[in-house]
């Protein structure tokens, strides 16, 4: 079961038209605040005690409520686990024919994984209990009760289908609103940890102009074998009276795809190392990934970097040392400490404590005892490689925590010059972590282009953070009003073509997509040349960030076989931050690089989501608002 390209497909092309779901359901937490039909936010205040379907409009109600009321979902127990899965399965049952062949393998043209899931220690009990709850609800709707001898095979099979094929429907902010099951045009697309396609959701009320939706897009993929070969009919025969509205899905290429090549998307976070990806895929989807990235030996540069630990010991010779003996222990201890810190931050909400703890472990690492030698036991100091997946997650958390600290200073302190400068310092460091995260991810993206989806968000966040710094009123305290930025020519850059592309009516046309590698290379060269003019100012006061000479140039890591004990790049010209001229120069380049980051994010977003996607439009509006 796989989907292959009908024809050659260029990077950044739609592969499917907008696809309506076969069945779907909001998660419980959104039932009172979002439309159960189209998943759009409701215009009226949410009801905290409501349980059931609410609709944003009459068309949504007329399309969805008959199916909802006929499915017996209102008879499910209120405390039923996996309730969104059960509602989706009950609604899907309505589309089944009276006789359904090959129930153990396929239903509605979709794989059920029945035998695997019902014998799985992770899923068997949940599938059984959920199927019993579904069967009881269907009986109750008819005024009957479920007998212990009643067969729940059909309910089990359909619930297995939902568990196997459902995807989390996300809004523009990345929140998971609910789940949806789509027909084989999407559900037959397999997973890869190095995918050539991604997907996006279109969540909008009826008759609204939808970001990124092009109903004229053709289906450019076909099954590698016909569904008839599996002894089933096309699901379209079972869905003649299906939904008119609902969260639509579109698939788009993120690499060039040759005719006949399999089209794959990712089911997991691609910035996780292999072991974590495999664990997630097995626990949630019951398969072991055998894609090229997972099976290559030795590991790819990206997977090696995501697990890399830097080690040093001034009193111990590392000659012949097998760091693999200590990597697992180091990763476990560091990961446990960071996870505890993040959990505490989310539950207690103390951003200052979070910053201190994360920066302590990033900068200082921890010690692992080695085997005894002639001189007794020796201790190995272990630190995260800047590309380690835990370090990348820590940069993301620190950017958020420093941003919250900045807001707290302005909200809870008196509006003195001192408090404004302190808040500005927190914003600077937050922007520094955002920029480091974007730069590090881009370095990995250059080796694994399927990381483009992560790169989109990180460049956007970095650009917004830098423009916030450039436009801050704190510069007025230094005698540098915002009007100083008027000397920067709109949409122009003498070193790369990025701003010219942004100023054009059509961002990244077909010719420019073909030349994307050169555009990306020019962009990096441009921001790399500008970063020395502001980076030290941006990160001043943050000891960990001060160990990085540049947020974009990681070539020095190729020679970093151990932790540098005496790195201190900030000492050069340590008094330059006190000169007004240097401040002006730093601010101008912060603005320029911020603009470049946002525009580059727009170009990447165009590839992933299309020119009219919500993310693309959001970034364009942000840039336009700042310029004007």
From TrEMBL:
Annotated SET domain residues: 113-268
Any Pfam family: SET
InterPro entries: SET_dom (IPR001214), SET_dom_sf (IPR046341)
Name listed for the protein in its UniProt record: SET domain-containing protein
Species: Gossypium raimondii
């Amino acid at each position: 079961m796989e989907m292959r390209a009908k024809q050659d497909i260029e990077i950044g092309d739609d592969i499917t038209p907008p696809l309506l779901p076969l069945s779907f359901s909001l998660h419980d937490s959104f039932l009172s605040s979002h439309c159960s039909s189209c998943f759009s936010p409701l215009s009226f205040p949410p009801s905290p005690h409501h349980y059931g379907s609410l609709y944003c409009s009459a068309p949504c109600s007329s399309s969805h409520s008959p199916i909802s009321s006929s499915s017996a979902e209102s008879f499910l127990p209120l405390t039923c686990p996996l309730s969104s899965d059960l509602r989706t399965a009950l609604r899907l049952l309505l589309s089944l024919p009276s006789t359904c062949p090959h129930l153990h393998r396929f239903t509605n043209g979709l794989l059920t994984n029945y035998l695997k899931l019902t014998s799985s220690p992770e899923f068997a009990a949940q599938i059984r209990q959920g199927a019993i709850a579904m069967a009881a609800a269907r009986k109750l709707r008819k005024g009957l009760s479920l007998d212990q001898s009643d067969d729940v095979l059909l309910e089990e099979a359909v619930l297995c289908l939902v568990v196997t094929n459902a995807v989390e429907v996300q809004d523009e902010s990345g929140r998971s609103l609910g789940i949806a099951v789509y027909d084989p045009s999407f559900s037959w697309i397999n997973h890869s940890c190095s995918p050539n396609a991604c997907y996006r959701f279109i969540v909008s009320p009826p008759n609204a102009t939808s970001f990124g939706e092009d109903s004229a897009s053709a289906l450019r993929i076909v099954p590698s074998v016909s569904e008839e070969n599996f002894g089933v009919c096309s699901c379209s025969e079972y869905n003649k009276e299906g939904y008119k509205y609902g969260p639509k899905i579109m698939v788009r290429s993120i690499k060039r795809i040759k005719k006949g090549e399999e089209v794959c998307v990712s089911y997991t976070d691609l910035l996780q190392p292999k072991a974590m990806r495999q664990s997630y895929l097995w626990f949630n989807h019951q398969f072991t990934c055998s894609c090229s990235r997972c099976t290559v030996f030795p590991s790819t540069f990206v997977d090696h970097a995501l697990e890399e630990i830097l080690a040093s010991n001034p009193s111990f010779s590392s000659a012949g040392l097998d760091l693999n003996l200590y990597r697992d222990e180091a990763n476990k201890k560091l990961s446990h400490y960071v996870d505890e810190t993040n959990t505490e931050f989310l539950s207690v909400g103390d951003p200052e404590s979070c910053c201190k703890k994360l920066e302590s472990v990033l900068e200082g690492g921890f010690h692992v005892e080695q085997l005894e030698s002639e001189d007794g036991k020796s201790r190995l100091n272990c630190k995260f490689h800047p590309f380690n997946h835990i370090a990348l997650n820590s940069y993301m958390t620190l950017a958020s925590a420093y941003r919250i600290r900045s807001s707290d200073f302005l909200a809870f302190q008196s509006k003195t010059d001192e408090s404004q400068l302190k808040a500005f310092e927190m914003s600077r460091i937050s922007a520094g972590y955002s920029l480091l995260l974007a730069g590090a991810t881009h370095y990995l993206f250059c080796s694994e282009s399927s990381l483009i989806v992560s790169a989109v968000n990180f460049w956007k966040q970095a650009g917004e953070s830098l423009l916030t710094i450039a436009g801050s009123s704190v510069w007025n305290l230094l005698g540098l009003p915002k009007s100083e930025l008027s000397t920067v020519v709109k949409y122009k850059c003498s070193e790369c073509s990025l701003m010219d592309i942004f100023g054009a009516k059509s961002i990244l046309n077909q010719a420019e997509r073909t030349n994307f590698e050169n555009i990306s290379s020019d962009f990096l060269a441009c921001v790399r040349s500008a970063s020395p003019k502001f980076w030290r100012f941006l990160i001043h006061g943050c000891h960990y960030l001060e160990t990085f000479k540049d947020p974009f140039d990681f070539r020095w890591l190729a020679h970093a076989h151990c932790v540098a004990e005496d790195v201190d790049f900030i000492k050069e010209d340590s008094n330059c931050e006190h000169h007004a001229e240097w401040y002006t120069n730093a601010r101008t380049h912060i603005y320029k690089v911020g603009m470049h980051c946002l525009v580059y994010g727009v170009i990447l977003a165009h590839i992933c989501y299309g020119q009219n996607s919500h993310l693309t439009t959001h970034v364009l509006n942000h840039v336009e608002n700042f310029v004007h």
